[in-house]
């Protein structure tokens, strides 16, 4: 969980799949989990943080072992109740 003056938010880094992330790299799709369920506007600071992390991942992903993460569809199938966030 991350925090800013505007409130807490979570950036989920998943494997690229059919559903596009807010930002993507060659391997990963990044999603912003801010409990808005797509109904709330994204806080600019939160979106910028996500884009900064995506930029960093692009720079290092060819030099590091891939993360072992699911696609969004795989995670939703594994956790149908949506209880997959970190405490």
pLDDT < 50 runs, ≥5 residues: none
Helix content: 25-40%
Could you say which structural class the secondary elements and strand pairing correspond to? alpha+beta
Shape descriptor reads: globular
The mean pLDDT is 87
**How many strands, which pairing sense, and closed or not: the largest β-sheet?**
4 strands, antiparallel
The value of Rg in angstroms is: 13 Å
| Strand fraction | 15-25%
- What is the total tally of β strands? 4
Describe the protein in words:
- There is one protein chain.
- Helices cover 28% and strands 23% of the residues.
- The chain contains two helices and four strands; from the N terminus they run ββββαα.
- Strands 1-2-4-3 form a four-stranded antiparallel beta sheet, covered by helices on one side.
- A hairpin with a 2-residue loop joins strand 1 (2-4) and strand 2 (7-15).
- The model has no long low-confidence stretch (mean pLDDT 87).
List keywords for this structure.
alpha+beta, 87 residues, four-stranded antiparallel beta sheet, 2 helices
Concise summary:
The chain is 28% helix and 23% strand.
Give the topology, please:
Layout: E1 2-4, E2 7-15, E3 23-24, E4 28-33, H1 44-60, H2 72-78
Antiparallel strand pairs: 1-2, 2-4, 3-4
